[in-house]
Amino acid sequence: MLGGGLAGITAALRCADAGLDVTLLESKGHLGGLTHSFRRGELDVDNGQHVFLRCCTSYVELLRRLGVLDKVFLQPRLAIQVRSPRLREPVWLRRNGLPAPLHLADSVLKYKPLPVADRLKFASAAFALKGVDRDSAAADAQSFGDWLRRHGQSDAAIGKLWDLVGIATLNAPATGASLALAATVFQVGLLTDAAAADIGWSKVPLRELHGEPAKARLTEAGAQVLLGTKATALTRVEGGWRITAGETEFVADRVVLAVPPEVAERLLPPGSVRLPEGWARRLGSSPIVNAHLVLDRKVLDQPFFAAVDSPLQWVFDRTTQSGVDGGQCLAVSLSAADDLIDVPVREIRERILPELRRVLPAAATAHVRDFFVTRERHATFRPTPGTAALRPQTRTAADGIVLAGAWTATGWPATMEGAVRSGDAAARALLTPGPALDEPTSPEGKDIR
Ligand SMILES: Cc1cc2nc3c(=O)[nH]c(=O)nc-3n(C[C@H](O)[C@H](O)[C@H](O)COP(=O)(O)OP(=O)(O)OC[C@H]3O[C@@H](n4cnc5c(N)ncnc54)[C@H](O)[C@@H]3O)c2cc1C
Description:
This is Phytoene dehydrogenase. The protein is of the alpha+beta class. About 30% of the residues lie in helices and about 20% in strands. It contains 14 helices and 19 strands. The strands form 6 sheets. The protein has a 7-stranded mixed beta sheet with strand order 7-6-15-16-17-14-18. The protein is globular, with a radius of gyration of 22 Å.
């Protein structure tokens, strides 16, 4: 098993539970991959705020296997406080007791950031989105933003309602997102089951939710976990594959590659996947930036809010998870952060702080004890139109090598749920040997296009 993010952890646990002899190599000093945390003085800091939805059933199943379900909170009923500098009071997007998609109808009808005409047009686009075939290449080739406009949605409706959910789940605004991926998010999360979008989050730092328990459960299950072990080459040998990691070599009859896409493409024997050379670079990545503030007093009385008419996007209370003693710790989560990823901290502070004070008046007089930024340049693959054609299937043409990762062909955007689903699929493929890719090829040489 190469790679100890959520995909690799899931696949490794499934295989170890099935009695396979599992060795997991992870290049970093911890498991958890893109979901990790670190210490900054007395603070526990996550690399970025992570949330999940009730519909993320595979992820929740992983939490159960890790024995950490008591370390997450899941809203009993979806409620999103929305703040705008143009409104004196926040508004709420709450689900009512009606079945989907009517569960949001009254919230949308009362949604003050939008003119009434836009609120009334929301329903017809929502119903049309429910009917989009999210598995079709034609849907994947289209821009979600263009589709929304064709379905009567104004720029205001896209920016203040659709992007409110979409930018955080897709890591792209509607204009830069594939319709198929957006349809997956909205169909599964909002348009089918009323409870599906109830929001959950960790009550502890991410390393206590994923990385540390994963190492413990894998070890208990008999797997060997080798941290700080970076795979550098994968070579065909008699009876399997030789994995080179620095000076050390391992031989395995089967390999799960659960590493980021560019690493996978580098390690895979040529011709292993039916994608054009350079597919990983073409798939690309999209950044997420989090601005963290420690304030001398409590300014937010909700676990989180979303902001419109503002660059803030989503703001979370991180006081408990970070272990702040007195005052409050907030994380401003900024998805699709191309315009911020290379901006110095001082400048980000100059942009974010006044905006926070505009939408959250209680913050106006608070003293900022600490302000820092976490950046993930390659947080997710870039979910642009046409992405589906660049996401490889689990099985490869290289006998015994399977792929896992949020970037594989799960149909989901790059999320924790997608990563876990890919790990489940990889374990299934290893445990139930079947045909590799349906096109004959030699893993050593032939390139399939
Ligand atoms: C800031 C941020 C916020 C996010 N917010 C959310 C959210 O709110 N909700 C949500 O569902 N998702 C969110 N995501 C996305 C989610 O974190 C990822 O989709 C998921 O964690 C990816 O898991 P993975 O196992 O596919 O990949 P990764 O986590 O990238 O795992 C790959 C692993 O392979 C290791 N590796 C790399 N090269 C080698 C090598 N040569 N040898 C051995 N090991 C190697 C890496 O160190 C890494 O541990 C967010 C991501 C970020 C960065």
